[in-house]
# Entry
Amino acid sequence: MRPLFGNDITNTQNSGNGNNDDDGNNNRNNNHIIDRLTQNGATPVATIAGKGIIRVVSRCEDAKENNNLDLSECSLIQVPDAVFHLMRHTELKSCDLSGNVITKIPPKFAVKFNLITELNLSHNQMAKLPDELSDLASLQSLDISHNSFLSLPTVVFKMKQLKKLNANTNKIIEIDFDLLDYQNNSLEHVDLRWNPLTGICHDILKEAKVNFKIELSDRQKEEWEDLDI
# Structure
């Protein structure tokens, strides 16, 4: 059955089964947290269902202690506004949003989390990144693997400190070779394995004279390439 997200930020649905007393206590706790966020100026994104809000808030509290925000596997369909509010006084060093169903990153992400050095967006449903992410001036590692990108986002070549880009297992067919000539002196490694690159694109990348390593998987020949003509 296809999940019904509605206006919720998580892919979590409240169930009518189970212990009614426990459900009532959970709902009261969730409503209390939402009320507190609202009173403190946060804009709640409709209702965060069930265990979703508890998990997100708990991990935000952990991030205040270790400066590493881990929101992986939280069933998020977007980055909640409440997260930006909870993290407003914390200088994050890394952010992990992997394993969700996020389709886009808001432009304000780079403003709110401008000091992060590592960003993991893998295993989501993204096909593009906002240009504003170029303002992540300290970012050194970016993982966008296992998404739906059809091409490498131009913005990654504008990140002045970026050293490692993982873009494997997407839907990238061709590369804008002008991007490879972009003057990015920090880039050291680009992982493009397991993308459906065309034969010509794969061969050019394999022989490309660039100042960073391009990692490619072996190209699978199309059926027609094995035909004797």
Observations:
- Residues 1-8, 12-18, 43-48 have pLDDT under 50 and may be disordered.
- The first strand starts at residue 68 and ends at 70.
